[in-house]
Amino acid sequence: MRLGVCYYPEHWPESMWEDDARQMKALGIEQVRIAEFAWSRIEPTPGEYDWGWLDRSIDVLGAAGLQVVMCTPTATPPKWLIDRHPDILPVGADGRPRAFGSRRHYDFSSPSYFAASQRICTAVAERYGKHPAVAYWQTDNEFGCHHTVVSYSPAAVGRFREWLKARYHTIDVLNRAWGTVFWSMEYRSFDEIDAPVATVTEAHPSHRLDYRRFASDEVARYNRMQVEIIRAHSPGRPVAHNFMQLFTEFDHYKVAADLDVATWDSYPLGALEEQWFAPEVKARWLRSGHPDFASFNHDVYRGMSKLPFWVMEQQPGPVNWAQWNPAPLPGMVRLWSWEAFAHGAGCVSYFRWRQAPFAQEQMHAGLNRPDNRLDVGGNEAAQVAGEIRTVLAANADANAAIRSKVALVYDYEAKWLFEIHPQGADFHYPRFAFEYYSALRALGLDVDIVPVDAPLDGYCLIVVPPLPVLPTDFAARLASSGAQVVLGPRTGSKTQDLQIPANLPPGALGSVLPLRVWRVESMRPNVTEAVRLLNNPASSEADGFARHWRDFVESDAADSLDVRARFADGHPAYVRSGAFHYLASLFDDALTLRLFERIAQEAGVATMPLGDSVRVSRRGALTYVFNYGDATHTLADVADDAFVIGSHAIEPQGVAVYRTR
Amino acid sequence: MRLGVCYYPEHWPESMWEDDARQMKALGIEQVRIAEFAWSRIEPTPGEYDWGWLDRSIDVLGAAGLQVVMCTPTATPPKWLIDRHPDILPVGADGRPRAFGSRRHYDFSSPSYFAASQRICTAVAERYGKHPAVAYWQTDNEFGCHHTVVSYSPAAVGRFREWLKARYHTIDVLNRAWGTVFWSMEYRSFDEIDAPVATVTEAHPSHRLDYRRFASDEVARYNRMQVEIIRAHSPGRPVAHNFMQLFTEFDHYKVAADLDVATWDSYPLGALEEQWFAPEVKARWLRSGHPDFASFNHDVYRGMSKLPFWVMEQQPGPVNWAQWNPAPLPGMVRLWSWEAFAHGAGCVSYFRWRQAPFAQEQMHAGLNRPDNRLDVGGNEAAQVAGEIRTVLAANADANAAIRSKVALVYDYEAKWLFEIHPQGADFHYPRFAFEYYSALRALGLDVDIVPVDAPLDGYCLIVVPPLPVLPTDFAARLASSGAQVVLGPRTGSKTQDLQIPANLPPGALGSVLPLRVWRVESMRPNVTEAVRLLNNPASSEADGFARHWRDFVESDAADSLDVRARFADGHPAYVRSGAFHYLASLFDDALTLRLFERIAQEAGVATMPLGDSVRVSRRGALTYVFNYGDATHTLADVADDAFVIGSHAIEPQGVAVYRTR
Amino acid sequence: MRLGVCYYPEHWPESMWEDDARQMKALGIEQVRIAEFAWSRIEPTPGEYDWGWLDRSIDVLGAAGLQVVMCTPTATPPKWLIDRHPDILPVGADGRPRAFGSRRHYDFSSPSYFAASQRICTAVAERYGKHPAVAYWQTDNEFGCHHTVVSYSPAAVGRFREWLKARYHTIDVLNRAWGTVFWSMEYRSFDEIDAPVATVTEAHPSHRLDYRRFASDEVARYNRMQVEIIRAHSPGRPVAHNFMQLFTEFDHYKVAADLDVATWDSYPLGALEEQWFAPEVKARWLRSGHPDFASFNHDVYRGMSKLPFWVMEQQPGPVNWAQWNPAPLPGMVRLWSWEAFAHGAGCVSYFRWRQAPFAQEQMHAGLNRPDNRLDVGGNEAAQVAGEIRTVLAANADANAAIRSKVALVYDYEAKWLFEIHPQGADFHYPRFAFEYYSALRALGLDVDIVPVDAPLDGYCLIVVPPLPVLPTDFAARLASSGAQVVLGPRTGSKTQDLQIPANLPPGALGSVLPLRVWRVESMRPNVTEAVRLLNNPASSEADGFARHWRDFVESDAADSLDVRARFADGHPAYVRSGAFHYLASLFDDALTLRLFERIAQEAGVATMPLGDSVRVSRRGALTYVFNYGDATHTLADVADDAFVIGSHAIEPQGVAVYRTR
């Protein structure tokens, strides 16, 4: 548990640097990230490096006792480089290169940019790799931001063809895997294959899915290049990248596999505004963020980080980039910080030290205001710094790793597949995964979010949001885990090649779950279907309702199948066979919570219903309680002397931490 | 009355073909459509045909006693052809060629594609034109699907200039006809004229309308080329094309004039989702389709088919291509089938024999599931096959032609003109034509849908939805028909050149209807205008309301004009002069129905108010009743022994057929 | 006070011209605008002018005693010119040239078009500059219509670089002014700078603002070229341009500075439909227009016109170009005409003499119908002509200039800046300026709308809607004016270079208003914040609510700051210091009105609350009252013999004019 900050010495007169460093230290900051957008200052003219200012700024930070997180500056290639190599620019779906003038204006597949990146990364890593103040590295910045993963450039298409050759070996295998016979889309060679864009109607879904897989792999390859250069020149310093909240355009597990630390950039208010939430939900959590949103991301990135994950950028006040940008309620910056630690974070690093008065993000707050007075967020960070010292002093295992009884399987390809091949226009995978997660959290459960190939032993309850493509051994691993397994609709509905399984969905899960999905329907937003629980005393009332989607389920082994809920028209809505629970639809929040509570009990996992605005997390011997609501929450059953932070009465935006054992 | 199916032998192992053919026959299928997307299998390499598989599949079908509907494969030119002739690709309004990778990626005006189409059509027609199993032909597939009628390619512009020369002869005539003087848009030669696209503000409406007429004519020309090749090589086999539901981007009458059979592809649930209906209407008829939608299309295509029209593709279960895709209620596939026959169909052909597990339409149901079990739709098709035998055995004239007392005039140019020149953003011609049709159907009336140049004698009631451009003799033909004539607003509002008639609307109808529309207004969706019927006892209540549009009507012969309804501000809303009834607005559904009922009575046409969910059709000596609702409908006044199918109590999704005489 | 009309002799047979001119004169028309779209008739072939028809039409008008407003025809370059110089076409944000086929298809920065314009303007001005019938000139037509101010052509980019050089002199100055260091966007020379378009995410806001300033300056330069040519050849004739209602894409003050008369085109119903108003507001004022909309524009253009402003085009009936186009209520054309005169207009000129039956605007009414009968608007124009004679005869100072006690500061850069850099997606500057104006008008106040550099002495109340960039001397001028000053939120929030002021907002106003905006938040449409007035008796009720935006205010001199209202969370919502009133949010209409009423009283300005549908204006010794509502409005306290037009009871759509002294 420690605090960090993002700092841009190039934004400020050199005369301010020493004072800035001293203030950081005084506030309780331990690490400082720098230089991720500084290429034009590092190399103002082609081949002529200006290291002086950067040397001095690192020296100043180091002299103040701060650890530097050094970045490669590749997110912002300078104008002279673009003018020399216009093929660096990514190409949009409209066939036009995207222009210089903001950031991330590069194509992951551009050979020019790959070479230029190798050169600048090597230069930076050589110069600072062994500098005593440099403790960590960050590659680039927010891969994929502003829809930059997928490019339709000639370079990308060329590399896609190579990628296809490596995957399918012969064109006949590809034609069969994709089913190109359908509309005479058969190819005679890999060189006939273009990007799946600008077609008359939707391009072939397998073609599109492979293009997304390819584009994702290009990100991993590009990051790996940087990691290897850094490791060669800066041995022993962990390498990180700062991922984005709920970002899904590339497979983060694959990129994280090459890193030491997975970090993410947490902007709870901006996210609330920009994500799928309904307008009334956005108003409800306007100045606090959704109680499960940051947590969901903490658990996602914890699940892929070798060292404890970090929040690399923590929202310190209003941001500039959402459609509307409210100010956090007093206390929220503190709450968010503690929530990250409660979920296992090693560091919470605020973006940014001081609000710069110019350019695109001039309206984005920092810990300090543009007039160099400490802002609300800065005060709360100072409070957190003090509280960290209290917690660490009192609890030896405050930095313990987290291990939960509940796992939620989260997958990136699932997002792409359902986006490409939705069948119902609002089938938004991250939303459904989040709704399952949110129900678990409202039951007071700690949740590990894991990839499909994660070890599953040791979990009591495994929840699988709609997962179309199953790894070969998935059914076996689920079965041998001993856990109760909840499967969302559409699970096992596709093969690796995006075809319907020959035995119908849930495909390979049929071996452990004796059912077939013989028909599906998607439901428009103003349509729901009543659901009745079968253990319910006879009544004419529905127990809840289904939304978005229905799987129609049949079985050759009806005896071994326990139908626990039915739709109004009699079709099964929820069936159980042994440890496997199949949900044939996406239910309303209350019904989802009710079903999860029952299954958790069957799994032997104790639940603690919390309502919608209080959340609990456990790390080591400490329990953390967070109040997102607008009324005081009172904890019963906690001894007075157990509290490390706070007390029984948790005010709105309040935090309590107490010893559990 | 017979059943058919669409079949793709190229999708399945040859080992399955014989069993498939046997099962089709057993189920009651008589005709099988094949090969419309098979170009890449017929000619896998330029100039090298692979006929073997197609020969064998036709032989297998023929041997099973099935008749083949053979298709030309031009809807899906293969990749090698596109690579050799990139000018085949149509060009979008954004100036970019649309890409290979789905279907219909061709420009109707491309000389390369015209020649390539002639070649492949000749090859297919030569090989199978006299094959004993080949009974019918289909040209291409769904002309215009995915917005492919209009292209902005250089080839299209070149042919447009020729089309203009043929229409206007001299540039001065064109300049006057269009009124190009308005904004100095005058042309000095036809070669100065471009496509009406990408202009600073809206392009000239006459220019745009002519471009749409030209593009429509290009479709007819292209189809005619195929028909002539087929007729030359396959004499005696009727030639069909499968049109789309409510598709209006080309003049279907002109294309149908070259065919023997007009067929259409009926997807009632997909259509409901994708058309203009309000969300609550979409929810109301979610799993049955709108009770008048398929019927409207049956009557449209019956009106242009020389032989009895067909449903070439009948929805058999959920589809994949709407935004949301619900499953039909049990019984709907049967109901839809019978509804087609009741409206005069010669054949109902299901799309498709078996759901293929791959490519764009893998989620589109068939009569059989991907695991080769018979699906719900398959069972219902089998039921229909049995019922057809019953009906045919009992009724000699079950296949009789239909002749109605009521005609509705339906026009394609009207759609283009109002789209180009709406004056009110929601003036959607097909919707208004459908609303008039729906009111007539709710009154229990059979309706012929006819073009503006159809013979009108013999009808008692002729309903004309907003028809801007009138043929020269239209007023005379209406007057001499002896029918009562209902005219929607904006009728006669434009000349052939898209100008306001010199005598003001309704233009040439002024000779039979002594009124002028001296002003109009369009009404935004949250504005209506109350309407009072003048024969109503004095009350402060409105009898209904006007929507979308108002014509302001004046007359030099007020004595001969019977004002039957007025708007709240006193302007006439409905006037009658002799047999002509002019509606100066678009009324709410209830008022439209009330007016139509009164006029039908004046026309001597008996009405039978049915409400919104039961519909009746008559063919030969049989009356067909369909229940789209969710309550049992009871027929009174039908003798017990008159029923051929069903009985007095018609369950939801039920059908009854009884002898009328 | 006089009437005019827009006339297109080229649309009609020459045989109609004399009768048209006679009818105009008879109706009371005094001036006729012609030829603004006639280039293709003036120069049908390159270099060959056809003056004959235009000579004759001007002679006919002059012979009838009408004054001609002669136009340059540059809004519609003919096709042959475009084909010779395709670089004339402006380039859209998508990088594609916009096409010929409507109007305004030219790039203000095109050297070809500048030269061609000089040539045609010189030709027209030489021929008609001294013609006795030609009394006025109009340059071009509606600069900027259809989004034609900003072009992304190479010519525009080239001239932008020159513009930047002239502004910043060295690239280092530009880099610092913009803050390009932020994302390595630093430039090494002006030639590296492109247009701020097609970037990966938002382009740099300072870059974007400068591009808008540049594009605006290009319009002024282009207009100035025409004005200079006209003045050289037609001395003594005032030169006008017809601006558009609430159009903001260029700085109208700068263009008007080169003109003699600022005129505008008034379409109250089309504007209502196309502007920001909520659907229920659009329905409320459907057939009258919003009571403050035309007035706002009158006051905007009066404020920039050297001679009395005109309405160059007055809506005479339904138009064609809004999404929905209702018909004005009877009397509205008269009311709008009088409202213009009441606000100081020298002329109201109707668009157009007769509705042409062809081309894009065939559904746009004129004073006469296409069948050459006088339309409703024509009758009302005739009524106005008669009333003008009455008014002029009875009141020597009816044409007096208007001078108000209240000024509203209105700025064009503010619109661009907030559009580029909104921070809240619905921060629409003209709407907020209009809401302030509307509140003042509902208090019965006459308002001058003035630029930021206007003299402010003599005003009692100065209202400043959100004004981000302050001129250097603005604070001093406000302070020395002696007026009470109301400042909207975000005032002084940016420097000239679009940076946050070093002392925080309100920047330079801090010298007279001891506060700092230390934080802001934008509020989504379904979020408001309660506001309490501090002088209110204690109650739990809010006095109103804040919308869209909140400034968080602090002060080092709290004693000198009178906090007059607070938000529910305690932050100040409205503070006063001396004559300066700072509003920290945008309040609901009722609260805004209540605050303005109180401040007006403090300013010694008498108010007269009028409700939402009656409006009053004063010019010379006359008071004008307009009734936009649907109930009769009764004037008390006016002597019977004071009425020049109308009487105490003003019917809906009615006008009354009475002598005040």
UniProtKB/TrEMBL annotation, chains A, B, C:
Coiled coil: none annotated. Residues 6-389 form the Glycoside hydrolase family 42 N-terminal domain. Belongs to the glycosyl hydrolase 42 family. Keywords: Glycosidase, Hydrolase, Metal-binding, Zinc. It catalyses: Hydrolysis of terminal non-reducing beta-D-galactose residues in beta-D-galactosides. Pfam families: Glyco_hydro_42 (PF02449), Glyco_hydro_42M (PF08532). Transmembrane segments: none annotated. PANTHER family: BETA-GALACTOSIDASE GANA (PTHR36447), BETA-GALACTOSIDASE YESZ (PTHR36447:SF2). It comes from Paraburkholderia dipogonis. It comes from the Bacteria. This is Beta-galactosidase.
